[in-house]
Amino acid sequence: MATKEGMEVLDLTKLGIQQLTQIKQQLDQELSVFNDSLTTLKMAQGKFRDSNESLEKITPSTEGKSIMVPLTGSMYIPGRIADGKTVIIDIGTGYYIQKDVDGAKDYFKRKVTFVTEQMEKISTMGLEKNKLREAVMDVMEMHAQAQLSAQKQQASKS
């Protein structure tokens, strides 16, 4: 095995079909985890964007107006806007903070940026894993072709 920039480089052509199958299965699992992570991050990104858009509707002039307050994704209760200058935002794991509307908009904008950056990192890693998976599959196909060719030669000699 050669090393390249601190990483081991493995010659896939020297591995057996069983080892290649194990590597492919591992890569398939990793790609599945990446896809699940991307889906979760995309949902979070959408929620942060929706929250930011909702803040656009909160102004001092909306104070005292009726709204529907979400308790869950599908359950709402009637409420009134008590203060059009500040909001309470969920920052995760049961913690809430009070911020002025502009501060809350900035918070959600930063969260969207952070989640987008994480999605880009995971996408890049996923592309690299997918390239490696394709290379493993190509070598597996080469092994299968060589085995088939050897069987044909054996059959023609008989």
Rg is 27 Å
- In spatial order, strands of the major sheet run 1-2
Number of strands: 6
Order of helices and strands: EEHEEEEH
> What would the principal axes of the Cα set say about the shape?
rod-shaped
Return the average pLDDT rounded to an integer. Answer: 89
GO cellular component, one term: prefoldin complex
Family: Belongs to the prefoldin subunit alpha family.
Pfam family, one: Prefoldin
GO molecular function: unfolded protein binding
Mind sketching the topology for me?
Layout: E1 2-4, E2 7-9, H1 17-55, E3 66-70, E4 76-80, E5 86-92, E6 95-100, H2 101-157
Antiparallel strand pairs: 1-2, 3-4, 5-6
Helix pairs in contact: 1-2
Structure report:
The protein has 158 residues and is an alpha+beta fold. It has a single domain (20-130), classed as Helix Hairpins (Orthogonal Bundle). It is built from two helices and six strands, in the order E-E-H-E-E-E-E-H. It has helices spanning 17-55, 101-157, and strands spanning 2-4, 7-9, 66-70, 76-80, 86-92, 95-100. The strands form three sheets. Strands 1-2 form a two-stranded antiparallel ribbon. A two-stranded antiparallel sheet has the order 3-4.
Write a brief structural summary.
The radius of gyration is 27 Å and the shape is rod-shaped.
Keywords:
alpha+beta; 6 strands; 2 helices; 158 residues; rod-shaped; two-stranded antiparallel ribbon; two-stranded antiparallel sheet; 61% helix; single chain; Helix Hairpins
